[in-house]
Design a protein that fits this description.
Distance between the termini: 90 Å
Radius of gyration: 29 Å
Structural class: alpha+beta
């Protein structure tokens, strides 16, 4: 270790397609450098080097064949870089992402970090059972407050202490073999069977984002996954036409919902309007759950209007800032203050007026409430929907994918509008989608479009016969 003749040069921008800033310094004539994605990060790194030089710290350097193993860093920075484990980094990444992430996104980040952490643990003595590891990581490690900021049960503390010691260094991910092993682990569920392609893609997206954050922190020059040749699973975003209910089937299903739970308890009758909003209005389930009376215009006859601006998605208490099971958010993928105006047909106007006359509203004006007056949970309306399918559909049809989930009512609505010849721009506006997403998702559901195109082509060709 030497501290003689330390020279720290200024930050300079590299001439590359992606912005990059170099910090260069020399120790006893040997030149070292680190690259960063932003000038601020580079300046911060340079300041640390200058502080260490002023404090007289020894800088790591070597000569001859050992030059490639030298870091050129002062002892404090070299030790920190060498000992940062994946687990310690994952906690940093979570603390950075958590405050700005939606509750469901927090849940997804937690799940992804748990999967990767399980894949990068060394085989050390005293390894807890996999179920204990996952429980400690999911419920205690990758949530805020962090494990260091709260008191843990003794058994959980012991598990996380073992994880801290067994986690491999973050730098090990530069090994393509380990990178491939981590990516392969994302393709399996807890029981060892293949995970859904969308699940794999979501977990991989979190891992990629985390490693880009590591690049920002100066831990890597570029994402180590760039060196891994790995085939991403193909994800189909198209709606399965088998789930789309026609108007007759939709009416039968809505009618059957009213019989669920009996007339007196009204477990199903309370939800008829909720499901009707998904089918006749194209509402997302969370939009329907958050609907309030003051958001509606319900005339005695004709079309009405719904002003959508609020969603109440079901999430776990540990993922929300309020500690409630339901988050209170704006519209999906839109600014918080945005509003979507949706015309609603007379059929839905009539159903909602009847609902208000029969059940009124919750204390805060919400149209739909549980029996106790709370927010309707996704598990509650999902169970009611499954019971209604059995009542409304023949056994063979009930066993098919037709309207298997409540969300399929929205798919049915949008498919019906498109097949009715409604302009895609108008459908997209009512649904809260872009035209591109709308047409790509519902391409397989546009019945009869080929026949229309065939007739037009045939008519054109006949003109030249």
């Amino acid at each position: 270790m030497k501290s003689l003749d330390v020279k720290i040069w200024s930050v300079r921008k590299r001439d590359t397609k992606r912005p990059s800033y170099d910090v260069r310094w020399s120790v006893s004539g040997q030149v070292f450098s680190e690259s960063f994605r932003t000038k601020g990060l580079a300046d911060n790194y340079r300041s640390k080097l200058m502080r260490a030089a002023r404090d007289g710290e020894e800088f790591d350097t070597a000569s001859g064949e050992e030059f490639d193993t030298a870091s050129g860093l002062p002892g404090s920075m070299a030790e920190q870089k060498a000992t940062l484990t994946w687990y310690a980094f994952a906690l940093k990444y979570l603390a950075m992402k958590w405050p700005h992430a939606a509750p469901n996104t927090r849940d997804g980040i937690n799940e992804s970090l748990t999967s990767v952490t399980m894949a990068v643990l060394d085989d050390r003595p005293g390894r807890p059972a996999d179920a204990e590891l996952r429980k400690a990581l999911r419920n205690w490690a990758f949530v805020l407050p962090s494990p260091d900021d709260r008191e843990l049960p003794a058994d959980v503390g012991n598990v996380l202490h073992w994880v801290d010691k067994a986690s491999r260094p973050l730098s090990d991910l530069t090994d393509p073999a380990l990178g491939r092993a981590v990516l392969d682990s994302l393709q399996l569920k807890l029981d060892g069977t293949a995970a859904a392609a969308e699940t794999v893609r979501r977990k991989r997206r979190t891992l990629v984002n985390a490693l880009l954050y590591a690049v920002d922190l100066g831990e890597f020059r570029e994402s180590p996954l760039a060196a891994v040749r790995w085939q991403k699973p193909k994800v189909s975003n198209e709606v399965d036409p088998r789930v789309v209910a026609n108007p007759e089937q939709a009416r039968a299903l809505l009618h059957a919902v009213s019989y669920v739970g009996g007339y007196r308890r009204a477990r199903g009758r309370r939800l008829v309007g909720l499901f009707a909003g998904m089918y006749f209005g194209g509402f997302r389930p969370a939009e329907a759950v958050g609907l309030s009376e003051q958001d509606l215009t319900l005339p005695d006859s004709g079309w009405g209007t719904a002003l959508l601006h609020r969603t109440r998605p079901s999430v776990g208490k540990q993922w929300t800032d309020s500690g409630q099971s339901h988050d209170d958010r704006g519209l999906k993928n839109r600014p918080v203050e945005d509003v979507r105006r949706v015309p609603i047909p007379p059929q839905l106007v009539s159903i909602l007026r009847e609902h208000l006359d029969t059940f009124g509203t919750a204390a805060d004006g919400r149209l739909f409430a549980s029996e106790g007056g709370g927010v309707v949970s996704s598990s509650t309306y999902y169970r009611a929907w499954q019971e209604a399918r059995v009542l409304a559909l023949p056994p063979a049809v009930a066993a098919s994918p037709l309207a298997h989930r409540p969300y399929d009512l929205r798919h049915s609505a949008l498919s019906t509008w498109l097949n009715a010849g409604v302009d895609p721009t108008e459908v997209a506006e009512r649904a809260g989608n872009s035209v591109e997403v709308l047409l790509s998702r519902y391409a397989k559901c546009l019945d009869g479009r080929q026949e229309v195109a065939n007739r037009r082509i045939e008519d054109l060709l006949r003109e030249y016969e």
